[in-house]
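Late entry, written up from scratch paper. The run itself happened at the end of the previous shift, but nothing got recorded in the book at the time, so transcribing now.
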Amino acid sequence: MNSRVNILRFFLIACFAMSPSLRGELIISEFLANNRSGITDEDGFPADWIEIYNPDRNAVSLRGYALTDDPERLNKWLFPEMTIMAGGHLRIFATDKDRTTDSTQLHTNFKLRAQGEYLALVKSEGSEVAYDFGSAYPPQLEDISYGPRVRVSKTFLSIGADVTYLVPSEDIGAGWLLSGFDDSSWTSAQSAVGFNYSGEVGSLIGENADTEQVMKGINGSLYLRFPFQVEDPAAVKSLLLKTKVDDGFVAYLNGHEVGSKNRPDNVTWNSVATNDEEVGPDDPYESNLLDFNQKLIQGENILAVHVLNSRINSGDLIFASELEATFENPILPFQQGYFENPTPGSPNGIFGHALPSLVGFNVTSRAFREDFQVTLSAEEAGATIRYTTDGTLPDLEALVYENPIPITSSILIRTRAYLPGSIPGLVRSEGYVKISASEADFSSDLPVVILTTFGNGSPHGTSSTTNKEVFMLIYEPDRLTGRSTLEGSPTLATRGGFRIRGSSSSLFPKYPLALESWDENNRDSGMAPT
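Output as recorded:
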C-alpha cells in the first residue's frame, strides 16, 4: 500500500512540475465570441472578450505579450506595460476599438468571429505562441464562453457523508470546532440532518439523522461535525459550500467561521435563527464561496456547523450540504470546452465538453394530409433527447423522447439533445400543418404561404408593440411545372412573429401583416430557402 501511495504522489508531483502553474506561463483561460446579453464595455455595448490567467505563484509582467487572430501576424495587438498578479485574471474586450490607456478597459484591434477563427496569446515580442486553440476554435454559442479546463473539481463532502451531531444542553466551549475533539459520545449519522420533511427534500435526510426527538421543544441549536481529508492544502484553489437549510446555520472550518445564514449577532449554545425558512422540492442549493486561506490543514479537517432552528418548538428542520473544491488541472494539454455560465475576471465555472449535435428528424417541416410518425435521433451515444409540443424551449423538465411521435394534427416539435458532461445541444424545431383533402389538391402559379399559430389565436393588432408567435411554410412554383403545390417539403419553413399592420386596411377581411422570421431564441433571423 505504501509503495502505491508513493508512486501516486510522485506522479502528481511530476504532473504539477510540468504544469503552467510552476512555469509562469500565462494562458487564455476563457473567451466569449458571441455576446448578446452579457457584460458591456465602457461605451455601454455588449462586447466580446478574452480573459488571460496567471497560474503562477508570482506576478507576471505582460511586457512583450500580444494577442492575435492572425497566425501570420503574431504581434497584432501588444499589451501595455502592466502585470497580472499571482493567480489573477485580466479581461480584454475584443471590439476592434484598440484601447490600451486604461488597464481596466483594454480593447484589442480585432473582433472575434462566432463561426470560429485563430486566436492566440503570444510572448517574446510577438514571436512565440504561448497559448492557442489550434488552427481555429470551434463555432461559438450565444452568451456561452469557451476555454481550457484549467481547474478540476473534487467533492470533499456530499449527501450521505458521515457526520456526528449533538443537541447541546450547556456551553461546551469551542473545542468541538476543531480536529482532534473527542466526539465519541455524539450520535453518528449520514447527512443530511433534520426532521419532518417529506418527498424529495425529506429523502435527503440520512440514516440515523432524524433529530426531532432530541430537538423539538428542547433546543433550537444543533452541532454537526463533518471530517474530511486534504492531502495538499496549497493545491486547493477554491472551496464551495452548497446548502439547503431550514432555518439557519454558522459554518466553521477548523475553528474559523467561514459562512452563515440567519445567524444572530451573538451565537450561543441555545441560539435560534433570525428568520424562518422553508426548503421546497425545486429549490436549488445555495452556494457559499468560503474564505479558506490558511485555514485548511494537511490530513483531517473539520467542517463544523451550528444549525439553527427558528424556535425551540419549530415543526421542521433540515441542513443538507455539499463541500466542493477546485484544484489546478495537472493534466496537459488542457481539455478545451464550453462554459454555460461565463465568469470574466474570475475562475472558470462548470466545464462542458463539445455540445451534442442537432437532433435528427426523419420527416422535416411540411403540410400533410395523412397521419404519420416522427422519429427523432441523436448522433452521440448516451445522449437524451427532450422535446416540447407547446412552443416552449425544451429544458430538463421537458418530455424525454422514447418512441416515435404520432402526428395526427398540426403541431410544432422543438427538440434538444442532452449529454452528460456537455452543455445542452442547440434547439431544433420542425412544424407540421394538417390540411384538408381539397387543400391538398390545391395548386397555383404563385408562391403559397401557410401561416399557423397552432391554435393559439390571431395575430396581434396594429397597436401592439410585440409580435404573435407564428409558424410559416412557403411553397414556391416548381421549376418544371411552374405550379406551387403543397406536396413534399416546402421551400422554406421557419418560426417567426407577426402582427396586423396598416390603418384603415387593418380592418379589411384580408388585412396586411408585418412578419419577421425568428431563430430558436426568438430573435430576428434572415430567411433563405432550405
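The first helix runs from residue 2 to 18.
(Scratch paper discarded after transcription.)
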